[in-house]
Structure formats: C-alpha cells, structure tokens
Amino acid sequence: MAVSHQWFVEWSSPSVVFADINNGFKNVxxxxxxxxxxxxxxxxxxxxxxxxxxxxxxxxxxxYGKTNDLSFVDKKRxxxxxxxxxxxxxxxxxxxxxxxxxxxxSISSDTETPPFNTLYxxxxxxxxxxxxxxxxxxxxxxxxIPENVLPxxxxxxxSRIWVTxxxxxxxxxxxxxxxxxxxxxxxxxxKPYPDWSFHRAFNKNSSCTGLTSVFRLNVDHCGRxxxxxxxxxxxxxxxxxxxxxxxxxxxxxxxxxxxxxxxxKQYVLQDSLYANIVLDTRREDCSDLHAYISDTWRFGLLxxxxxxxxxxxFSHHFFYPDxxxxxxxxxxxxFQWTDGIFGLALSPVDKYEQRTLYFHSMSSYxxxxxxxxxxxxxxxxxxxxxxxKLLGESRGLFGQSSASAIDKRGVxxxxxxxxxxxGCWDSRKPYRKxxxxxxxxxxxxxxFPNDIKVDQEERQNVWVIxxxxxxxxxxxxDPNNYNYRILYADTIDAVRETVCDPNIVY
Length: 506
What we know:
With 506 residues, the protein is mainly β. Helix content is 11%, strand content 30%.
C-alpha cells in the first residue's frame, strides 16, 4: 500500500512516520477548508439535458474532437443502445442463468487458480472512451498513460463489479469504473462510473465535486455505494492534495450521487491515508449505519455515523506497524513498508445483535479485534484502550496480510501478500496456526492479492483482485504479461474439507 512517503528504501529514504503526527495538513487546496461554502453534503449534479448540451457545445469539440456519440454520459437516459460482443456474452449468461444451467458469474476466462475462477485479466487496463478520437487525444495529452493505471480495490453488487484506480501516477483518466459480473471477455475495457463527467480526464475543473483518487469502497444492503476518495493525485510522482478526503455515496438504482461527507480536518493529519472502509448496519432500512475507516499512514480508526453525520477517531498502539514485519520480500524484491491499520473485516451479527471488527496492520503478522459496540459509542474514544484485543497467535514469518472479509458463516478470507496466497480462518475456532488455512496459492496469478470482498448473494462468493503492486512501484510492468486479475470462488466450496470448513471440527 505504500506509495509516497513509504517508499522503497533502495530508491529513497522514507519520511519519518512516528514524528510530526500533530502537524497541520499541508499542500492542500486553499479552498477546501471552507466546508460550509464549498463542500455541502449534497452533490449538485447537472441534469442529463445540461450534460448533453455541454458535450455538444463548441468548447467540447475543441478539446476532444467533434463527436455525436453521447452514450458515455448515460446510455439508458439518452436511449443509446450499442450491441457489442460483450453485451451478447452478458445476454447469453443471463439466459443460461434463467434456464438454471449456470450461475451469473460462471462464465470465466479460465480456471488457472483453483478453487478460483479468473473472471478477467489484463496486461494493461483500458477504458471505454466516448470514441477512438477521444482515446487518442487522451493519450497524446497525457491524460491516459496505460502503464500508469493500476486497479486496486473492488466491490460487487447485482450485475456489476466496481474497480478502483487511484491516481498514484499521472495519466489515470478515471478513478472508479465498472465491468460486467457476467464475464465472457478476457480483458474488457473499464467503464468510468457513473460517467466521464465525474473524472479528471474530462473534467479537471470539478472543484472537488467529482471523484479524485478512489482507494476502496463498500456497498450497504440498501443498495448504496460508499466511495472512499483520498483527494490526492500523483501520490507516487509528486503528491498533491487537491481535495479533502471524503466519502461519496451513490444510489445504485439510479447511479447518482446522493451525499458527500468530507472528513473533518482535525482527523486528517500530515500524510494521512484513509485506505479502507467497511459498513456496519443491522436495520433493514440502514438507518443505523456506521462506517469504519482505516488511516493506514497515521494509525487511526475513524468512525462515521450517518444518522447525524458525525465523525470520531480512535487511536491505539495496535494500529501501528510491527517493525519486525515491515521488511517485505516478494519475487526477488526487498522493500520496507511501515503501513499501519489496513485490513478490516466484520463478523456476522450474533444472537445479541452485536458484531466484532477484526483488524490488522499491513506491516504485521497478527490479528486484533474490538466489539463494535465500543466503536459506535463516541464517548469511548478516550476510554477504550483495554477493549481492543489481540487475537490468538501470530500468522508467522511472511504472514503480512492485505484486505480481509468474512462470509455469512463466519469464515474469514485474507490476502497473504508475500506468499502469493489467499488464506482463511473459521472464526468459531481459536486463532492458531493449525486453524489457519490457505485456499489458493499461485506464483503467477496471485502476485499481491490486494483486495478481498465477499458478496451479499444468498450463495456467496469470495472475490480477489491481484495487481503486482510492489513490481508496479519499482518499474513499468511488462505489457506482454497478464498483470492484473479479478478472481472469484464459491465460499463454501473454497474451504470444503479444510481447517476453515465450519462443518469440520479438529
């Protein structure tokens, strides 16, 4: 996860991580501190008509070339329907599902990593530009540099998969995009979400009303997409905090933004990086929703309560990196990262309507936990040190983990980033080495499993995105190799007859 201040020691010395924590937030857009005037909770979204008028205006062709193709704005609203091989594949998948022959996501590229299917894989990521002319212009103008585009996080809901692409280097035209969940195409182009007008390649003067650099996201069971936007661009080359870190909420029924919550300045310290978000709600209408957000570089756990739009932040020594686990070795690369709290996973709701948040630092071999009743109480911020607990044993040497997620049965899945593996643990069993399993290992397809998600279907799947992140930071990835993958596996089949199978007691 380290990109800017936590860089490989071979190239430059990392900045001090344990000092100057209370310094003010630097190099920020001078207007972003004016919350009331510039960052209200509701987006002002242009109407479909005004968007169409803008893209037909003289200013638009002068920048990107004349075109009458408006389908990239909103195919449904503008009644533009394009029949493509991809859509035919999706239609076939849906038809087979209706016949009961297959499940929606079963049309995969290959099965090279059992029990996972590889739904998609890319050598380099491309996008659905409005036209070839737009794409050529974006490349010529430096708005699109294919080798600088790295998919990082994912989320799954309905028929779509959302993919995040942080603006770590120049040339990332869109920071959030979708692909079909149905598969059928090996390396599909990503479709910017919700459309191009929210992204910097087509709207550099958005005044922080669009999307800047998205790290991760989460969907609640009410059909809302919660997007965690760092607000920082060119993190690897020359970091610029052009917008405040914020949470943007989209209604997935209409694909429109409904709220924007700016993280208060007092919780954004120098070099803060809000890198992960999980949602906690037990009510059918999501009226009790809380979000837990990890500050990976300033070692904090931020809590957001939607009902009154309140934020508060916990600090704890368990959120820090372990110096003994800050040395990474992967495929001949040796590097040092000091990434703190990162992986967040919520247990199912128990019989007392309670949940547990499991968490770990990226630079750590250990897992920790805390009852969410503690996190949901803002008065516990300064009176909760003993409520955060160590979970069982260490994962052992090279046990650094990225993201994690838990299915309905209480089975945790997590990425083992230096072992090219996906691990598992049945949370009803003690957290000991003999109860920690590995469901997949592959030195080609699982190089740096960066994000892990479990979908909300009745029969759940675990999803993984692998992206060779350390190699990406070191150099330009080989465009002749498949560098990025989205894989999925049935959660029950994935752990069947392993130590992680809830039906097996050792």
